[in-house]
Design goal:
About 10% of the residues lie in helices and about 30% in strands. By secondary structure, it is mainly β.
Length: about 170
């Protein structure tokens, strides 16, 4: 008799082991953009501008992971090295996405910093979403790129992002 009582419980536990835990990530239609390190040179309040040089154009769309829909009014902050390999305020910028969630950022090809490959730091925040910090890595002599930024929804009750406003 005890076996019959425990059998349904064992079947349920077996299903959980085989399928794994259920969480919000499994319901995402678009895979969220992978986090990457912020690095030591982030400073809040980057000036609102989409150009800090010329020779490389980065385009993309900020999207919601849950449904792949574009996110309007997302704040995207960029910081990178100058052609000489040094970080400087001249190579910081912020853009705000429009209704279509798209962005355009124009810069020079980043100078090499230490032994790191050429990269642009990116921080994205939007109301109702987790703030994302990532990096875009350029190929040698690359003049354009496409990098969609996919954000996870913020858990209910989680604190809002504390982004400082961009400078105009």
């Amino acid at each position: 008799m005890d076996r019959l009582i425990h059998l349904p419980l064992l079947m349920i536990l077996g299903c959980l082991v085989l399928t794994g835990p259920v969480n919000a990530v499994e319901t995402d239609r678009c895979p969220p953009t992978q986090e990457d390190e912020m690095g030591p040179f982030y400073r809040p309040g980057a000036p609102l501008r989409s150009v800090v040089g010329q020779g490389h154009v980065l385009l993309g769309t900020v999207k919601a992971a849950v449904d792949c829909e574009p996110i309007a009014a997302a704040l995207i902050e960029f910081w990178m090295t100058g052609p000489d390999g040094w970080y400087d305020d001249a190579y910081r910028a912020a853009v705000i996405t429009g209704q279509s969630g798209t962005y355009r950022f124009e810069s020079h090809y980043p100078g090499l910093y230490a032994s790191r490959p050429a990269h642009i730091h990116i921080r994205v925040s939007a109301e109702g979403f987790e703030t994302l910090t990532t990096q875009y890595y350029l190929q040698p002599d690359q003049t354009d790129g496409h990098f969609d930024l996919v954000l996870r929804s913020r858990a209910e009750g989680a604190p809002a992002s504390t982004n400082p406003p961009p400078r105009e």
